Amino acid sequence: MKKIDMTNVQEAGEFKTLPAGAYICVITAVEDVPNKEYLKVSYDIDAGEFKYYYSSIRLNHPDWAWVGAYAKSYKPTALPMFKRFCSAVSKSNGRYVFDGGSVNADESTLVGKKIGLVLREEEYYSNSGDIRTRLIVHTECPIDKVSSQRVPEPSRVKAEPADTGFLKASDNNSDEIPFI
Fold it and tell me: Where are the domains of the chain?
């Protein structure tokens, strides 16, 4: 290992993990993805112990594009959920109205607006096959309803990852090629 001068290096503090819960958030960026009919909504915690939680992560990991962000579909089958999103933003920001079809349909006007978000835990299989946990947006609500929101139980994986049809190297104990 090369020699490193640690004299002026400050030791990292303890990293606080954001727990599942209902939070008052602010929308930090919105990107329309018209060919897939969704808005990519980036957000951050706007009050309490975890204020600016996602901004601090993005500062250290700018390539983590979906940290503190989620897709809000406006496909015809998803319009009831999109309307809930629009209603939560409108009710959280005084006289501001966003409904996707009016004069205020410019998604860039959402930046800086507050919204209540309920974040729940979800288990998933990583690329290496390990089970990991992440927070996802479960639902939106007006900010005055955040304290009354019920946080759902974590979503657990139920089955092994999908069979790709390929054998893992460890599954084939023979030196022979299995399909010959």
Answer: 21-171
